[in-house]
Structure formats: structure tokens, C-alpha cells
């Protein structure tokens, strides 16, 4: 995640009933014989887990089961992320970078950020890189090109079925285009697909995986976590836009103080929301729909926050 020469000390936190399973995870980590693992702290104690950490990947949430919607999860998860936000506030390094993965990820990240008044809101993010990667992958499949040739798709909003995968600023590069950049919309040349099936496939992909596996995504989520943290810490390639759920500063008319997925670039350990992209009427409607859902989640969550 941070490069082949960056050692890490892993702090693994789980709840008491899972301690035996956690010991198994530690055994497996040892058995990877990874030279980059310079230590493992496995604990059920919040203080021990969060003390002096630089990066926090919060994957532990009440998992969604088949047929369950995110809102059903809010109450249970509010409890978890309030406690973890406070622990980050009290014990972690002040520059800790936090990535919330457990669903509902945006609102869980919001709860954690609001529960950590001593930390900058820019330290908190949620995972929409999985959706970003899914969107790239769908385009690459459709055009029969390598996924690396697809650039600058954008995921707006919530990591849920209201998210908006947007290809209006996306382009393809490389041998597929004779080395030239070519806009995805023109290359696909099927607006009905781009504004219909493509969007719904990406929006529903998490649910489709749960229906097929009877378990939530795992490997693809892990890859997205690596991509998200690596880019945040080490920077995005010149000209490359990625998607991150971050604290809204009102960009693109989105309400402030929500964790909303925006197009971002990263440099020197900081993300910047890409400004000035055109948002057409179709997109505007989608941006507002997913914003509305996040506002509703925030309202529901606030009942459990105090
Ligand atoms: C995913 O997108 O694969 C997961 O967030 C789905 C889920 O609800 O666990």
C-alpha cells in the first residue's frame, strides 16, 4: 500500500467475542513472512489499538445481509463509529488519515469525524474507490481495452445505490486510440447504455456480489482500500482524477458537512477536490439525489449521536 520499502506495524482491533479469530489472523500475517511487517498489535482494547496510529482503516461495521438496506444499519453502526471517532480523537496521531469502509460508509465516516472534534475534518474519508474501480472496469469491458486505459471516471455522492458514476470527463488512452486521448462517451457511442445500464450496474454491484456470494465484496474492496490509501499518501499521477468520500466544503453546490464522494487529486498527503468540471442537467439531478439520501442518513444518525 505504501510501497515496497515502507515497513508497517499493524494494530488490529476486534470485539471480545472475536479474539480467537483475531489470533488466527495474526498467525496468518506471521505466515506471510512479509519483511515489511515490523510488528502486530492484536487487541480488543481501544486505547491500545488507537494509540499513536498514523492510518486507520475502519472495516468493522455491522455487516449488511442480503436484502438489507443501509439505513437498517445506521443505528447499530452509529454506536461503533462514535466510539471509534472518540478513540481516534483521544489516542491517534493528530495527522491520522482515516478511511471508513464499513457501511453505511459515508455516514459512518461523518459520525467518526463529528466524534473527533480535536482532529481536522480533512483527516476523514470513506471508500468510494471500489465504485470508481467498478466503473472503470465496466467501461474497459465494454470497449474491450485494459482497465488502465480508462481515466477520470467519477463517483459522486453516497456509497449506495444512489451514487452517480459519471463518465462525462472520462477518457481512454493508449494503443486503443493510437496514443491519443479519446472521450469515453464518444468511444462507447451509446448514451442509452451510459445513462442506463452502466449506471445501474455500478450502483448495484455491491448488492449483486452479496446475492452471488452470500457475503460482501472482499478482494475487490481490499484492492480499493490499497488504491485509496496509496493515492492519498503517495499522490495521484499527474492529470489523474480519483474518487474519495470526503468532507463536503460546498463544492459543486453540495451541502456542506456531509461526507460526499467527489473527484479529487492527491499530492503531499493531501487531497484536493477537483474544481470547475461541467455538470449537465442529467448529472445535476443525480448529484442532488444522492446528496438528499446523505442528508437523510445524517438526520437519522444525529438522533443516535447525542
Ligand atoms: C460493496 O459495495 O461491495 C459493499 O459496500 C456492499 C455492502 O453493503 O457490504
UniProtKB/TrEMBL annotation:
Binding-site residues, substrate: 64, 70, 103, 134
Catalytic activity reported: (S)-malate + NAD(+) = oxaloacetate + NADH + H(+)
Xref: Pfam families: Ldh_1_C, Ldh_1_N
GO biological process terms, semicolon-separated: malate metabolic process; tricarboxylic acid cycle
EC number in record: 1.1.1.37
Origin: domain of life: Eukaryota
Oxidoreductase among keywords: yes
Positions of the Lactate/malate dehydrogenase C-terminal domain: 128-304
Residues the record lists as binding NAD(+): 14, 77, 101-103
Domain Lactate/malate dehydrogenase N-terminal: residue ranges: 10-124
Segment forming the signal sequence: none
Keyword Mitochondrion (UniProt): no
Active site residues according to the UniProt entry: 159 (proton acceptor)
Single GO molecular function: L-malate dehydrogenase (NAD+) activity
Gene3D superfamilies, A to Z: Lactate dehydrogenase/glycoside hydrolase, family 4, C-terminal (3.90.110.10), NAD(P)-binding Rossmann-like Domain (3.40.50.720)
Annotated keywords: NAD, Oxidoreductase, Tricarboxylic acid cycle
Function: Catalyzes the reversible oxidation of malate to oxaloacetate.
Similarity comment: family membership: Belongs to the LDH/MDH superfamily. MDH type 2 family.
Name of the protein: Malate dehydrogenase
Organism: Acanthamoeba castellanii (strain ATCC 30010 / Neff)
Lineage: Eukaryota, Amoebozoa, Discosea, Longamoebia, Centramoebida
Amino acid at each position: 500500500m505504501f510501497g515496497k520499502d515502507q515497513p508497517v506495524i499493524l494494530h488490529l482491533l476486534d470485539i471480545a467475542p472475536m479474539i480467537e479469530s483475531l489470533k488466527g489472523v495474526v498467525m496468518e500475517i506471521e505466515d506471510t513472512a512479509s519483511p515489511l511487517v515490523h510488528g502486530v498489535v492484536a487487541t480488543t482494547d481501544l486505547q491500545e489499538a488507537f494509540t499513536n496510529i498514523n492510518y486507520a482503516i475502519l472495516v468493522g461495521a455491522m455487516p449488511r445481509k442480503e436484502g438489507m438496506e443501509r439505513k437498517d444499519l445506521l443505528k447499530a453502526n452509529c454506536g461503533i463509529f462514535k466510539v471509534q471517532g472518540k478513540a481516534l480523537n483521544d489516542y491517534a496521531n493528530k495527522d491520522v488519515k482515516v478511511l471508513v469502509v464499513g457501511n453505511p460508509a459515508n455516514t459512518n465516516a461523518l459520525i467518526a469525524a463529528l466524534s473527533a472534534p480535536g482532529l481536522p475534518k480533512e483527516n476523514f474519508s470513506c471508500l468510494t474507490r471500489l465504485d470508481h474501480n467498478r466503473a472503470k472496469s465496466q467501461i474497459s469491458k465494454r470497449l474491450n481495452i485494459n482497465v488502465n486505459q480508462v481515466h477520470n471516471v467519477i463517483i459522486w455522492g453516497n456509497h449506495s445505490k444512489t451514487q452517480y458514476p459519471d463518465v462525462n470527463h472520462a477518457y481512454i488512452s493508449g494503443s486503443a486510440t493510437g496514443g491519443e486521448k479519446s472521450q469515453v462517451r464518444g468511444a462507447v457511442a451509446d448514451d442509452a447504455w451510459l445513462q442506463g445500464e452502466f449506471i445501474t450496474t455500478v450502483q448495484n454491484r455491491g448488492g449483486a456480489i452479496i446475492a452471488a456470494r452470500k457475503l460482501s465484496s472482499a478482494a475487490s474492496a481490499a484492492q480499493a482500500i490499497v488504491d485509496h490509501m496509496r493515492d492519498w499518501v503517495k499522490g495521484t499521477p499527474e492529470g489523474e482524477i480519483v474518487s474519495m468520500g470526503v468532507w463536503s466544503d460546498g463544492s459543486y453546490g453540495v451541502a456542506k458537512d456531509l461526507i460526499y464522494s467527489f473527484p479529487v487529486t492527491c499530492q503531499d498527503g493531501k487531497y484536493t477536490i477537483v474544481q470547475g468540471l461541467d455538470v449537465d442537467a442529467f448529472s445535476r439531478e443525480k448529484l442532488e439525489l444522492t446528496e438528499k439520501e446523505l442528508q437523510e442518513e445524517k438526520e437519522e444518525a444525529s438522533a443516535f449521536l447525542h
